[in-house]
Specification:
166 residues; 3 helices; 8 strands; Alpha-D-Glucose-1,6-Bisphosphate, Chain A, domain 4; 28% helix; alpha+beta; single chain
């Protein structure tokens, strides 16, 4: 279930959610590492792409993201943490208050994915309240739907050749 919180820090909002998937962490992380495919399952993203598509996704890679989250139409993020099959974290290139964080936890034959998205809300407590009323619930619901979409994609991927290019 996705949550919107941080009442003690109104200048920064965050969404977080987690969900178990019937998949090995390696398969789930392969879908996470496919940056161009994020809009397929992250419904609040319009586009995402590597700034330099000739380079693989690695620490220091730059990712361009167009989203429904408040801010500039297209935002530049930099991969600041990448631990294969476990953790992928991006921080805003021009604002450290923007962050997208993915973690995969190994269960027995399953995995649990955790997603956290942080973004700034401006104008103090009033701005944070307005953000929660106008965008917070919608973004929280979108993250819930996104996690279920991710679950469907990662569990179906190995079995259907139609989705094999993902």
């Amino acid at each position: 279930m996705a949550m919107v919180s941080e009442p003690d820090r109104p200048a920064r909002r965050h969404l977080s959610g987690s969900l178990e998937v019937e998949s090995a962490p390696e398969e789930a992380f392969a879908l996470l590492a496919a940056v161009e495919k994020w809009p397929l399952w992250l419904s609040f993203l319009r586009t995402s792409r590597l700034a330099d598509p000739s380079q693989p996704l690695q620490r220091g890679s730059e990712v361009l993201v167009r989203s429904a989250i408040p801010g500039d139409p297209e935002q530049l993020y930099e991969v600041d943490v990448m631990i294969a099959n476990y953790h992928l974290s991006l921080v805003g290139a021009y604002s450290v208050r923007r962050r997208i964080d993915f973690r995969i936890e190994r269960k027995t034959s399953r995995s649990k994915i955790h997603v956290k998205v942080e973004y700034p809300s401006y104008h103090g407590r009033v701005g944070a309240w307005i953000d929660s009323v106008l965008r917070g619930r919608k973004l929280s619901a979108a993250l819930d739907r996104s996690l279920h979409q991710f679950k469907g994609l990662v569990e179906v991927l190995p079995e259907h050749s139609l989705l094999a290019d993902l």
